[in-house]
């Protein structure tokens, strides 16, 4: 990489600037290697990774605030001032593309990235997985196995019928892969909303933005689509969406249930108060409520949604037309 202002060129496999390495030595106490007198040492892989990792560690706690993975990646490539600027967005997208291209694994496995235990309950293996079968009906599981992308993914990670594990993050929170998310959306839409012209990437991007694909949701948002119990109950009882039961909040931590009511709510919002709505309106209304929509003001949620949408397809720039109907 190249800094136009300082005319510095990144060195080594992690493209560290010499001045950054010198600052890490003098200002942050990383003195395992001394590069002050000889910046060319940064071309050596172990030295380069040492300073690259040190800089990443510093970025994760920039200004004493715990930073997101996206902030760290974009700041590493473009500087902290450009971490939210559009100029660093391509770095983040390339990073995600590389992550998705890595060999599939179930996070939480003790082995290396290519290791997939065939029997999670065997002695010494991780037994803290959440299983798909506890969150989906036999019919929905059969549809998942029959989905070409998911079938390949599960076969590759050596899943067994009746014992399919959710992926886990470092805190052992179960989440859906993007392939699994796409499959759930496709199955629900094809079975229950086929006449609505719904775009799968739109639905998946909503899920990415609201829940980060965590099975149980995040914060106050329940499930992968973040639909609260009162909304789901209203859709079920008042609007007639009864393909899935929603007897309690726990039902909304089931991916197919959350997806079903999430899509139903999107359909309702797309014609809110009898008007065909733009996808900017739908996104804001879904996340903040239809009474809180402000299409004139800058909306961080909209920017986050656009980034998520780019993971599933090239983002469409025409914000005036509805993307789902």
Automatic annotation (TrEMBL):
Transmembrane parts of this sequence: none
Biased composition regions of type Polar residues, renumbered to the chain: 116-126
Stretch list, region Disordered: 107-126
InterPro entries to which the protein is assigned, alphabetical: Lysozyme-like_dom_sf, Transglycosylase_SLT_dom_1
Domain Transglycosylase SLT: 8-86
Pfam families (UniProt xref): SLT
PANTHER family in the record: TRANSGLYCOSYLASE
Protein name: Transglycosylase SLT domain-containing protein
Organism annotation: Noccaea caerulescens (Alpine penny-cress)
């Amino acid at each position: 990489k190249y800094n136009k202002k300082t005319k510095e060129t990144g060195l080594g496999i992690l493209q560290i600037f010499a001045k950054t390495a010198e600052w890490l030595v003098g200002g942050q106490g990383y003195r395992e290697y001394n590069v002050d007198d000889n910046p060319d040492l940064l071309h050596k892989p172990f030295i380069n990774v040492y300073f690259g990792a040190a800089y990443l560690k510093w970025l994760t706690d920039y200004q004493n605030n715990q930073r997101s993975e996206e902030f760290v990646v974009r700041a590493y490539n473009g500087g902290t001032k450009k971490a939210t600027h559009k100029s660093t967005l391509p770095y983040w997208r390339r990073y995600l593309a590389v992550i998705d291209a890595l060999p599939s694994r179930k996070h939480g496995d003790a082995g290396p990235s290519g290791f997939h235990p065939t029997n999670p309950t065997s002695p010494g293996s991780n037994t803290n997985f959440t299983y798909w079968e506890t969150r989906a009906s036999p019919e929905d599981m059969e549809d998942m196995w029959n989905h070409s992308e998911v079938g390949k993914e599960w076969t590759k990670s050596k899943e067994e019928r009746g014992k399919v594990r959710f992926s886990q993050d470092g805190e052992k929170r179960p989440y859906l892969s993007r392939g699994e998310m796409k499959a759930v959306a496709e199955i629900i839409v094809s079975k229950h909303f086929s006449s609505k012209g719904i775009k799968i990437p739109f639905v998946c991007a909503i899920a990415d933005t609201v829940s980060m694909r965590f099975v149980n949701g995040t914060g106050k948002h329940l499930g992968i689509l973040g639909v609260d119990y009162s909304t789901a109950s209203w859709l079920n009882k008042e609007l007639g969406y009864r393909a899935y039961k929603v007897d309690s909040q726990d039902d909304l931590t089931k991916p197919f249930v959350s997806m079903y009511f999430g899509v139903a709510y999107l359909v309702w919002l797309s014609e809110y108060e009898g008007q065909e709505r733009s996808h900017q309106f739908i996104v804001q209304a879904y996340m903040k409520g239809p009474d809180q929509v402000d299409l004139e003001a800058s909306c961080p949620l909209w920017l986050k949604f656009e980034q998520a949408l780019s993971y599933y397809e090239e983002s469409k720039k025409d914000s005036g037309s509805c993307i789902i109907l």
